[in-house]
Amino acid sequence: MRLLINKKSLAALAALVVAACVTINVYFPAAAAEQAADKIITDVLSNEPVKSGSRGDETASLEKPLSQWLQAAGMRVLNFVVPAAHAQQPDIDISSPGVRRIQASMKARNAELELFYDSGAVGFTSDAMVAVRDLNSVPLRERNSVRQLVADENRDRDALYREIAIANGHPEWEDKIREVFARRWIARAETGWYYQQADGSWRQK
Amino acid sequence: MHEPARQWLLQSRKVPCLILLWALQAAPGSALELGEFSAATLQGDGWRAEQVSTQLEFAADGALKFRLNIARLQLERATTTLTDVSLVCSRLLLESSALGCRASRIRVGGLPLDAVNLQADWEYDLATAAGFIHLSRVRIAGGELDVRIRGSLAGWQAQLLARSLSLGGLQAASERWIAAPWPAGFDGRLDGDFTLQGAAGINRVAGRLRLYEVNGSNPEGTLAGEHLAMQGQFSAHRNGGNWQANFGLEESSGQAYVHPVFVDLEANPASGSLQINQLEGERARLDFQLRQRGIGELAGQIQLVGQEAAVESWHAHVSQAQLPDAYLTYLQPFLIGTPADSLETVGAFDARLSYADHKLQEARLSLRDVHLDDTRGRFALYGLDGNIDWHARDMGNSALSWAGGYLYNVGLGPAQLPLESGAGLIGLTRGVRIPVLDGQLAISRFRLEHVESTVTGIEFDADIEGIGLRALTRSLGWPPFAGSLSGSIPRMKFADDIITVDGALVATVFGGSIRLESLRVSEPFGVLPQVEADIRLRGLDLAAITSTFSFGSIEGRLDGDFDNFRMLGFSPVAFNARLYTTPGDRSRHRISQQAIENISDLGGAGAAAVLSRGLLRFFEAFAYDEIGWSCRLRDEVCLMDGVEPAPGNGYYIVKGKGLPRINVIGFSRRVSWPRLLEKLRDIKADNISTRP
């Protein structure tokens, strides 16, 4: 019995020592963020109509028949025994309602903006925003609507990066997410579109 | 006229003298048959000519013909060396005191103008030292110029008649002389009729000017015109050592973009005037007045100082400004990126602004029946009237009233705001009541602090008085609730686009209380307004809630905690919520069959079926021990739980008591939040529609 107590306190001590030494770092999942950025950017830049139906359809339902519930329970057991491969890796969640709302808003604006990406009037900046690059290629009457489009898009983009960071429980990731997006917007830009280099100069893709 | 050109003209008065001297020398007494003179270099006061040759001969018709060639002519004050200067005079007038020529042809090379061949009449009176020169139909810059210059020792006068000169051509021509007064990249046509008068220099200029077909843009695209046309007159004269100039714009058409303002002069033609007074001690005063049809009038004065013409002070008065054109043309471009960048506007306003000592000193704005309606549906104010009187140093009294409005679909009633403003502050002078839906907001304190145009803080104390939940929930698109909301909003602050509340926002509702702690509203007018709070519900009377909410009747008291409650765009997106029977509640706990059915419906399959099939359906209501429901909302999925675990991996939502006893047990743990909300709305709708 004494031995047991000793063993216990020893184990507790060991646990304490281990706990004291281990600092838990949550690294920014750069690869996952890149995939997430690509998913959003591809969707925004494709002018396909917005898909109807929400995520809720696939993930959860209000009333589950017993058989379904059993199946779900079975899956849960299975998942417990055989953990899914991606569980090891931190993921970037882009399915929060906030993110999806901003994404839909950007997608709705894209058809209009794309004309100005094509003409070179608007380009992608190095900080994952858009900017008016060449006012001269815009008819006088439309210059302020382009400025408005750019301002609206940038408001959405700011909100998007912030919202992704918050939705993933790491508001401090906002700058990193923005960096990832900056690279991916440019990578996903079509040939002929303009993007800004680190030194501020514009370059045509 | 350009200074070097003027110098050239002045210097040129000496050229006839030279010719005459030569003529008198070359032909003393003998018959004037033929004379020739050439020199490698001739030099005089302010000029130097190289390879000069002249010829004088009698033509067959008896006229005296004169020819002068100068290979290079340098004028001290001119930047350009003239080359291949030739003057051919077919009929030289040579009288006792006068010298002249009709229909002489002058050719000048090396000038930056394309006018190298001129037709000129000229005459020079030796006795009075007066002369004139008339250059007719000078082809220049794609157009024609007619120049008449008359001069004497007392002074000179020049008349210029320009037809269809191209701005681009003039610019190219003038490049080597002075910078053109318009930016590169523009072309257009100019017609003009000017008179210049002077003695040693220019003393008076006057004329009319018409610019038309002006198109182009500067390289940055910040200044551009399309089919621009302007017509007006100008005059300038020297008063002692100082100039006074007047410009009058009579007509205008076309489109212009002066970053960031786009002006459509077809829709809103402009006219106006500008007076420039050069004052003693390197100062100048500009008085301007501009009228634009459909937009309003602007008048004011600018004081400039120093060689750089720095703005020392200005004041401007906008009168009869008409919305929406005044907003669309002159205000909206500066508001892009702010919540006020997409307004529908109607009404009229006047404004006065004055600036001195490097800052705005005074601003007055008076509004007349102004309607502002945000096209993104965030806010609206109708029937805005009143004036805002702002001074940099002391406080002025202002008053603002409106007939109604909206804040995110929440209706606002008429209100009158007595304000004081100035010295970095705008505030209410006394408490006001603003009707909100069927209740009101009693504001006891409002102060807005600012540094120049940046709002640095807003403080706000108010009480909510009897705002009906039915109207509020409907306005915000939430599941409908009855009851009314009263409470206080203490010390609301606004800074960095975030509204925070010191302490808790407490409201009484359904015989209990709602406390909003750590309330934080970020970007209230942004893309996705965010509301965060911890919400405490205490002792809500379920009977009061359910009596108007056709969910079915429940009696008892309810507590609730919504931790880390977060709304985006006024829809809840995340929270850890727990609703539970108030601990120690001794009131009657009853739940109706309908409420049981509805809860079962929400909580998962099971109980409802039992009810409708079994004997239990004959009972109207049941006693319960506890009600409890929790939801952890993330990504539109609600992870649900209840009072305590129930057999079969379920959880009790309603734990029955006594007999007949009924328990509501939930089995679904993951529930789609949007569907849950839909259900809640449906219950309401169904029950209303099926009831008589």
How would you explain this protein's 3D organization?
The complex is a heterodimer of chains A (205) and B (692). With 205 residues, chain A is mainly alpha-helical. Helix content of chain A is 58%, strand content 6%. Chain A has seven helices and four strands, in the order αααααββααββ. In chain A, the strands form two sheets. A two-stranded antiparallel sheet of chain A has the order 1-2. In chain A, a hairpin with a 5-residue loop joins strand 1 and strand 2 (130-132). In chain A, helix 6 (143-167) crosses helix 7. Chain A is globular and about 50 Å long. Chain A starts with a helix and ends with a strand. Chain B has 692 residues and is mainly β. Chain B is 13% helix and 61% strand. Chain B has nine helices and 45 strands. Chain B has a 45-stranded antiparallel sheet that branches. Residues 1-17, 23-33, 605-609 and 685-692 of chain B have low confidence and may be disordered.
